[in-house]
Amino acid sequence: QLQLQESGPGLVKPSETLSLTCTVSGGSISSSAYHWGWVRQPPGKGLEWIGSIYFTGTTYYKPSLKSRVTISIDTSKNQFSLKVSSVTAADTAVYYCAREEKSSASSWGQGTLVTVTS
Amino acid sequence: QSALTQPPSASGSPGQSVTISCTGTSSDIGGYIYVSWYQQHPGKAPKLIIYEVNKRPSGVPDRFSGSKSGNTASLTVSGLQAEDEADYYCSSHAVTDSAYVLFGGGTKVTVL
Fold first, then answer.
1. Chain A residues within 8 Å of chain B (Cβ atoms)
2. Whole-angstrom distance, CA of residue A31 vs CA of residue A25
3. What's the rounded Cα separation, in Å, for the pair A42 and B51?
4. Among A52, A57, A79, A81, which is most exposed with the fewest C-beta within 10 angstroms?
Protein backbone atom coordinates (compact mmCIF):
# COMPACT_ATOMS: atom_id res chain seq x y z
CA GLN A 1 0.00 0.00 0.00
CA LEU A 2 1.57 3.26 -1.15
CA GLN A 3 1.92 5.91 1.54
CA LEU A 4 3.13 9.49 1.30
CA GLN A 5 4.07 11.57 4.33
CA GLU A 6 4.88 15.29 4.35
CA SER A 7 7.31 16.69 6.87
CA GLY A 8 8.81 20.08 7.64
CA PRO A 9 8.39 23.21 9.75
CA GLY A 10 4.86 24.33 10.48
CA LEU A 11 5.88 27.97 10.89
CA VAL A 12 7.91 30.07 8.47
CA LYS A 13 8.77 33.78 8.71
CA PRO A 14 7.86 36.18 5.92
CA SER A 15 10.54 36.54 3.22
CA GLU A 16 12.13 33.23 4.23
CA THR A 17 12.07 29.89 2.39
CA LEU A 18 9.46 27.20 3.04
CA SER A 19 10.93 23.69 2.85
CA LEU A 20 8.97 20.43 2.90
CA THR A 21 9.87 16.80 2.23
CA CYS A 22 7.61 13.97 1.13
CA THR A 23 8.67 10.45 2.09
CA VAL A 24 7.23 7.68 -0.06
CA SER A 25 6.79 4.16 1.30
CA GLY A 26 5.25 1.04 -0.19
CA GLY A 27 6.48 1.90 -3.68
CA SER A 28 9.50 3.17 -5.56
CA ILE A 29 9.85 6.84 -6.41
CA SER A 30 12.01 5.70 -9.35
CA SER A 31 9.03 4.16 -11.15
CA SER A 32 8.84 5.38 -14.73
CA ALA A 33 5.04 5.42 -14.56
CA TYR A 34 4.60 8.33 -12.19
CA HIS A 35 5.38 11.92 -11.44
CA TRP A 36 5.55 13.23 -7.88
CA GLY A 37 3.82 16.48 -7.13
CA TRP A 38 2.85 19.15 -4.64
CA VAL A 39 -0.59 20.71 -4.17
CA ARG A 40 -1.55 23.33 -1.61
CA GLN A 41 -4.81 24.58 -0.12
CA PRO A 42 -5.08 27.88 1.76
CA PRO A 43 -7.43 27.69 4.75
CA GLY A 44 -11.02 27.67 3.55
CA LYS A 45 -10.02 27.89 -0.10
CA GLY A 46 -9.51 25.63 -3.10
CA LEU A 47 -6.71 23.43 -4.35
CA GLU A 48 -3.70 24.84 -6.18
CA TRP A 49 -1.23 22.68 -8.09
CA ILE A 50 2.34 23.81 -7.42
CA GLY A 51 4.47 21.49 -9.52
CA SER A 52 5.77 17.99 -10.04
CA ILE A 53 8.96 16.04 -10.73
CA TYR A 54 9.88 12.86 -12.60
CA PHE A 55 12.45 10.41 -11.25
CA THR A 56 14.94 11.71 -13.82
CA GLY A 57 14.73 15.14 -12.21
CA THR A 58 12.59 16.75 -14.92
CA THR A 59 10.34 19.33 -13.31
CA TYR A 60 7.07 21.03 -14.16
CA TYR A 61 5.84 24.15 -12.34
CA LYS A 62 2.73 26.29 -12.25
CA PRO A 63 3.81 29.29 -14.34
CA SER A 64 2.77 31.90 -11.77
CA LEU A 65 4.85 30.18 -9.05
CA LYS A 66 7.81 29.10 -11.14
CA SER A 67 10.10 31.94 -10.06
CA ARG A 68 9.82 30.99 -6.38
CA VAL A 69 9.45 27.21 -6.43
CA THR A 70 12.01 24.40 -6.59
CA ILE A 71 11.12 20.71 -6.49
CA SER A 72 13.88 18.12 -6.14
CA ILE A 73 14.06 14.36 -5.81
CA ASP A 74 16.30 11.96 -3.88
CA THR A 75 15.76 8.46 -5.24
CA SER A 76 18.20 6.95 -2.71
CA LYS A 77 15.92 8.07 0.12
CA ASN A 78 12.63 7.63 -1.78
CA GLN A 79 11.87 11.28 -1.06
CA PHE A 80 11.08 14.43 -2.96
CA SER A 81 11.11 17.98 -1.68
CA LEU A 82 9.56 21.41 -2.15
CA LYS A 83 11.09 24.82 -1.58
CA VAL A 84 9.14 28.07 -1.87
CA SER A 85 11.21 31.20 -1.50
CA SER A 86 10.28 34.71 -0.37
CA VAL A 87 7.10 33.54 1.32
CA THR A 88 4.27 35.83 2.37
CA ALA A 89 1.04 35.27 4.26
CA ALA A 90 -0.52 34.20 0.96
CA ASP A 91 1.64 31.07 1.07
CA THR A 92 -0.06 29.91 4.28
CA ALA A 93 -1.76 26.64 3.35
CA VAL A 94 -2.05 22.93 3.86
CA TYR A 95 0.58 21.43 1.60
CA TYR A 96 -0.05 17.97 0.12
CA CYS A 97 2.36 15.72 -1.72
CA ALA A 98 0.90 13.32 -4.25
CA ARG A 99 1.70 10.66 -6.81
CA GLU A 100 0.61 11.73 -10.27
CA GLU A 101 -0.10 9.77 -13.42
CA LYS A 102 -1.13 11.57 -16.61
CA SER A 103 -1.89 14.74 -14.62
CA SER A 104 -4.12 12.90 -12.11
CA ALA A 105 -3.12 12.64 -8.45
CA SER A 106 -4.10 9.12 -7.44
CA SER A 107 -2.42 8.96 -4.03
CA TRP A 108 -2.08 11.77 -1.52
CA GLY A 109 -0.30 12.46 1.72
CA GLN A 110 -2.37 13.58 4.70
CA GLY A 111 -1.20 17.17 4.28
CA THR A 112 0.74 19.51 6.52
CA LEU A 113 -0.22 23.03 7.53
CA VAL A 114 2.43 25.67 6.96
CA THR A 115 1.77 29.10 8.45
CA VAL A 116 3.73 32.15 7.40
CA THR A 117 3.98 34.47 10.37
CA SER A 118 6.53 36.70 12.04
CA GLN B 1 -3.34 30.70 -16.02
CA SER B 2 -6.74 31.30 -14.41
CA ALA B 3 -8.40 28.52 -12.48
CA LEU B 4 -10.99 26.38 -14.22
CA THR B 5 -14.52 27.66 -13.58
CA GLN B 6 -16.87 25.65 -11.36
CA PRO B 7 -20.15 26.69 -9.73
CA PRO B 8 -19.56 27.33 -6.02
CA SER B 9 -22.42 25.13 -4.91
CA ALA B 10 -24.84 22.42 -6.00
CA SER B 11 -27.43 20.38 -4.15
CA GLY B 12 -29.87 17.53 -4.46
CA SER B 13 -32.04 15.24 -2.39
CA PRO B 14 -31.05 11.67 -1.61
CA GLY B 15 -31.52 9.48 -4.64
CA GLN B 16 -31.44 12.39 -7.08
CA SER B 17 -28.64 13.33 -9.46
CA VAL B 18 -26.44 16.39 -9.45
CA THR B 19 -24.16 17.57 -12.25
CA ILE B 20 -21.19 19.90 -11.78
CA SER B 21 -19.63 21.75 -14.69
CA CYS B 22 -16.01 22.74 -15.12
CA THR B 23 -15.17 25.24 -17.85
CA GLY B 24 -11.73 25.92 -19.24
CA THR B 25 -10.16 26.76 -22.57
CA SER B 26 -8.66 25.06 -25.59
CA SER B 27 -5.30 25.15 -23.79
CA ASP B 28 -6.54 22.85 -21.05
CA ILE B 29 -9.86 20.98 -20.99
CA GLY B 30 -10.57 21.48 -24.67
CA GLY B 31 -7.18 20.24 -25.77
CA TYR B 32 -6.59 17.12 -23.68
CA ILE B 33 -8.27 14.03 -22.27
CA TYR B 34 -6.46 14.45 -18.95
CA VAL B 35 -9.39 15.81 -16.95
CA SER B 36 -9.81 14.61 -13.39
CA TRP B 37 -12.28 15.05 -10.56
CA TYR B 38 -11.58 14.90 -6.82
CA GLN B 39 -13.83 14.58 -3.78
CA GLN B 40 -12.74 16.21 -0.54
CA HIS B 41 -14.43 15.85 2.82
CA PRO B 42 -13.69 18.42 5.54
CA GLY B 43 -10.26 18.03 7.06
CA LYS B 44 -9.32 15.23 4.67
CA ALA B 45 -7.02 14.92 1.71
CA PRO B 46 -8.68 14.97 -1.73
CA LYS B 47 -9.62 11.63 -3.28
CA LEU B 48 -9.43 10.95 -7.01
CA ILE B 49 -12.83 9.83 -8.32
CA ILE B 50 -12.53 10.37 -12.09
CA TYR B 51 -9.49 10.46 -14.37
CA GLU B 52 -9.03 10.82 -18.13
CA VAL B 53 -12.48 12.45 -18.41
CA ASN B 54 -14.61 9.40 -17.60
CA LYS B 55 -12.55 6.62 -15.98
CA ARG B 56 -13.12 5.57 -12.38
CA PRO B 57 -10.33 4.31 -10.12
CA SER B 58 -10.89 0.96 -8.49
CA GLY B 59 -13.32 1.22 -5.61
CA VAL B 60 -15.14 4.36 -6.79
CA PRO B 61 -18.88 3.66 -7.17
CA ASP B 62 -20.33 3.82 -10.67
CA ARG B 63 -22.70 6.51 -9.36
CA PHE B 64 -19.89 8.87 -10.27
CA SER B 65 -19.46 9.59 -13.97
CA GLY B 66 -17.59 12.13 -16.04
CA SER B 67 -17.86 13.60 -19.51
CA LYS B 68 -16.45 16.37 -21.65
CA SER B 69 -17.72 18.53 -24.49
CA GLY B 70 -15.49 21.16 -25.99
CA ASN B 71 -13.94 23.26 -23.24
CA THR B 72 -16.34 22.05 -20.54
CA ALA B 73 -16.12 18.91 -18.42
CA SER B 74 -18.89 17.61 -16.19
CA LEU B 75 -19.20 15.34 -13.18
CA THR B 76 -22.52 13.65 -12.46
CA VAL B 77 -23.32 12.03 -9.15
CA SER B 78 -26.35 9.77 -9.51
CA GLY B 79 -28.37 8.31 -6.67
CA LEU B 80 -27.10 10.91 -4.20
CA GLN B 81 -26.20 9.58 -0.78
CA ALA B 82 -25.49 11.46 2.44
CA GLU B 83 -21.79 10.60 2.22
CA ASP B 84 -21.55 12.36 -1.15
CA GLU B 85 -21.81 15.71 0.63
CA ALA B 86 -18.33 17.14 0.05
CA ASP B 87 -16.30 19.57 -2.01
CA TYR B 88 -15.57 18.51 -5.58
CA TYR B 89 -12.69 19.81 -7.68
CA CYS B 90 -11.94 19.38 -11.35
CA SER B 91 -8.46 19.54 -12.79
CA SER B 92 -6.94 19.44 -16.25
CA HIS B 93 -3.61 19.08 -17.95
CA ALA B 94 -2.73 22.44 -19.47
CA VAL B 95 -0.07 23.75 -21.82
CA THR B 96 0.88 27.31 -22.59
CA ASP B 97 4.64 27.85 -22.67
CA SER B 98 5.06 24.70 -20.58
CA ALA B 99 2.96 21.87 -19.21
CA TYR B 100 1.19 22.17 -15.87
CA VAL B 101 -2.03 21.23 -14.06
CA LEU B 102 -4.95 23.56 -13.41
CA PHE B 103 -7.59 23.07 -10.73
CA GLY B 104 -11.11 24.42 -10.62
CA GLY B 105 -12.25 26.57 -7.75
CA GLY B 106 -14.32 23.79 -6.23
CA THR B 107 -18.03 23.04 -5.82
CA LYS B 108 -19.69 22.34 -2.50
CA VAL B 109 -22.30 19.61 -2.93
CA THR B 110 -25.04 19.54 -0.32
CA VAL B 111 -27.35 16.58 0.12
CA LEU B 112 -30.66 18.05 1.23
1. 37, 39, 46-49, 51-52, 60-64, 96, 100-106, 108-111
2. 13
3. 24
4. A57
